[in-house]
Design goal:
single chain, globular, 31% helix, alpha/beta
Length: 97
């Protein structure tokens, strides 16, 4: 299932936490700014999410944004229009351990 919420002035992901059947989520051009308070809990509950687009959100400016999202979004295959490679994921896990 695809959910497109781009350009809707979304500031919080909390309403999305338990939409566990969404595979593609487009949140481009919104106002999401918190990685740890908003995105991490969402990624931990949306286990079928394979594609996430957050381009144009303040959260992209967070330190190590892409790396952190890849680590938390274990089922992600695409982030912000770019493929998430298994090698990249393994490398990040190795660094964390």
């Amino acid at each position: 299932m695809t959910l497109n919420l781009s350009a809707n002035n979304v500031t919080s992901c909390r309403a999305l936490y338990f939409l566990d059947r969404v595979g593609r989520l487009d949140l481009r051009d919104n106002m999401i700014s918190s990685l740890h308070d908003e995105l991490v809990p969402m990624l931990n509950t949306m286990r079928m999410l394979t594609s996430l687009d957050l381009r144009g959100n303040p959260v992209q400016k967070a330190t190590k944004y892409r790396e952190q999202v890849i680590m938390e979004g274990r089922s992600l295959q695409e982030l912000d229009g770019k493929v998430v490679r298994d090698n990249d994921r393994r490398y990040l896990y190795a660094l964390a351990n």
